[in-house]
Description:
Number of strands: 5
Mean pLDDT: 78
Oligomer: single chain
Number of helices: 8
Amino acid sequence: MKLLAHNPITGDEMKAARTKDKLWQETTVDLKSVGTVFLWTRNGFQCIESPNIGIEMPSDRFVYGQSVGVRSRNREETIGILKKGLPVSSFEKLHKAMDITSSDLARITNIAVRTLQRRRKKGRFQTDESERLLRLGVLFDKAIEVLGSIDAARDWMKTPKKPLAGKTPLEYCDTEPGAREVEDLLGRIEHGVFS
């Protein structure tokens, strides 16, 4: 038996509590007529005995790119932000969120140290640099979502993985194909596929 519930959050309901960097909405489900219900958790299935339970459901409005300060509502808005160029503060936010040095982040995003110094004076990155920053930020946000916490995501990104030829996800994220491979690995983890 499969129980599905979909409750999108409207603009007025955006006062939802933030839990593990996700927007959550509390929902009550009446299970009197259903019988025994099992809830999947990170620790396996758990029997739910109460006929009326509260379930926290992730909203469908989780926005990837939060770690670099991008909170766009759609792709067109994201493209506009990238064409304008991300502010230098996005770089600072990401290196602090990921707990890596700014020189490591510059290396991973292929931004030369002297270029980074010029961008700090100018205040904005160019479109291609912004894309690389956003790519890494989106992957980091996905890791937070899949692994459940920012600390787990930080550790995961810095730990060598066999499916990535023994390299860390951070090392793999310096190219677009490598980033797609990291994204694929996170997808396998999310869906319980052995990797």
